[in-house]
Structures are given as structure tokens and as C-alpha cells.
From TrEMBL:
The keyword Protein biosynthesis does not apply. Residues 60-354 form the Beta-lactamase-related domain. Keywords: Hydrolase, Signal. One of its GO terms (molecular function) is hydrolase activity. Transmembrane segments: none annotated. Pfam families: Beta-lactamase. This is Serine hydrolase. Residues 1-17 form the signal peptide. The lineage of its organism: Bacteria, Bacillati, Actinomycetota, Actinomycetes, Pseudonocardiales.
Amino acid sequence: MTGAALLTTVTTPSALAAGSSASTLPPVDAAALTEAISGLPSDEATGALLQIRGRAGCWTGTSGVADLSTNAPVPADAHFRIGSITKIFTAVVVLQLAAEHRIDLDRPVQHYLPGVLPAGYPDITVAQLLDHTSGLPHIDFPEDPQWMVDNRYTVFTPDQVLATATRHPMNFAPGTAQQYTNTNYIVAGMLVEKVTGRAYGDEVRDRILRRLDLRETSVPGNDPDLPEPYVHGYIRANGTLVDVTSMNQSIPWAAGGMISTAADLDRFFTALFRGELLPARELGLMFTLPPVKVFGTGQPAFYSEGLLATKINGVTVWGKTGTRYGYTSGVFATRDLQRRIVYSVNTTSKDESGQPEIIWKIANAATAP
């Protein structure tokens, strides 16, 4: 069965407020966006939510079902797990602490967290955590989906999570290459707690969520459930779809444990890009790529201190993708906020090697010339 997309075109360029500058982007292509998320549920995904905002027009669409047992439609205001989009929030908190002169980005993280990393590891600066040039090895939990299903209520401490990585040698000398890894942001979360003396989640809430009135965004801690309304997440394990909507997020924690909505993520990005959360110097670091190559390739680095930069159809956007079991999400925007994109797709597999085809369809449709 295929769920029909529910579409609402909110604004068009002709309806722009007086005094706003004309967009250099083409108007949103409702037909292309509708097609991008059509055909759900499928073997690849059960539901999708897509929101476009900006001066070139706005559009919201949903497709598929929120619950396979009831066939209820996907609500446009659904809560979803944002996965590694959490890293942007973590980076903002660390950069705020740097602006307050409580953290020196160029100082070794070992200065702030003595004994947390193995003694044989070289010095790693705080900045190298944020832009993934640290060389730290990956978090190392079993990749078998059935293991995650069986352990979805198990609580892990940040120390236990980090220990799965630090039993391995460094991947490269700090600052010589870039390799994306959750390990960097687990350490960053521990750094926030050590410097402030408060829980990571409390710092995110006080510094960002309450400041911007993001009432639908949360750091769930060890609460495995999502607030209503939400879309169920499913994962294929041993050939069977398992409902993993309820799942403890202590493994990704400061690297990927948060929950939000499309509207809240758009508000967060708008405030961030406009400089409402960071001074100019620290904000500039989020839009500066390190002059290194991706580890093992000749590809230039594309992660800054908290964001990812990519060009699609000639349009450069900054943002972040996120993947948790049952949820694949993303938030991107042009630097001038002319186009802002938020999506959540309920994918049935968690493939770290690349994004599902539907995500590429969304990216192309959202930036179509």
C-alpha cells in the first residue's frame, strides 16, 4: 500500500513581505518535492516528512504512514529522532564556552579531561574534536541490527561508550586529515560537563532550547520514548520489521541523541545563521572548513566545527544529516537562509556507508534549478 503525500504550499515568491530582497534561487518545485517523497511505505522507508522554507517559497509535505499497525498518516508536526544533527547543538555549546573564555579551542582536550583518553594518544585540541580532524578511532559497538534491538533499553555511560573506541589506536595524527566519527562529540559532551559542572542536557536546554523557545526539542537522557505526536521507527532485523520507536539513546548521547520537529529545527537554524547564538568569530568557525583532505582520499574536508558543507545542483548548503534506528533526518540551509530544508524519513535500515535513494531525491528536488 502506498500512502498519498499531504501537501501544503504556504508561500510563493509573489507573496513575499514588502521590503524583502528577491531570491536568487528558483521557486520551490512542488511537483518535484511531491515526487521525491512519494511511494511510501516501501521496503526502504515507511514514512517521510519534508519542509522547505525561505524567500523563494515554502512547502510542506508528508508521505507514507506514521504507524504500520493503524496506517495513520504522518503528521507534519511529528517529533523525530534527529541523530547526528545533535552535533550542531553540541558544537554551539562548546563554541559558546569558548566565547566566554572558559574553553580554549586550541588547547589539548587532555588538559580539560585528564586521563579520559589513553596516555599514549597525542594531544588533541578541542577544535580538532569539533571539525573531525582529531584522528580518534570510531565508537565500536556491534553493527548487527538484532544486537541493537536486543539492547535498545540498555543504559551506557559516556565512559563506557568512549572505551569501545579508545581500545583502538589512533587513525591518524591530529590535524593532518578529516574523518567523521561520533567519538569526537562524545568527548565534546564530556568536556561540556567537566567545564560547566552541569549535565550536558541541562547546558543544551538552558543555552539553546529555552533561549529560542524550542519547546518541541529535547535531550531525552535515558528516557526511551518520544513525545506525541510522533512517527514510529522500524528496523529490519533478521528479515523482520521491528518497531524501535522506543529506544534508549545513551550510545549516541551528545553525538546523536536529541529529538526535535521540523519547525523547531528551522527556528534553530535561522537563529544560528543570523548570529543569535554565537559571536561573529565563533560563528565564523562553523562556516570554515579545515585545509586538510578526508582521510584516505584526495577529497577536500567538508566538515567545519559543527556543520557539513555540500553543493547540490550548484547550490551550496550548510547543515547536517542524522541517522538513528528507524529515523534518517537532515537540516540544511544556504548561508543567507534563502532556502532552508528539513526532512525526516523513517528508513528501515541504518547504513553508515551512504544515504538511501529517497534522501538524494529530496536533496535534488529541494535545490532543483
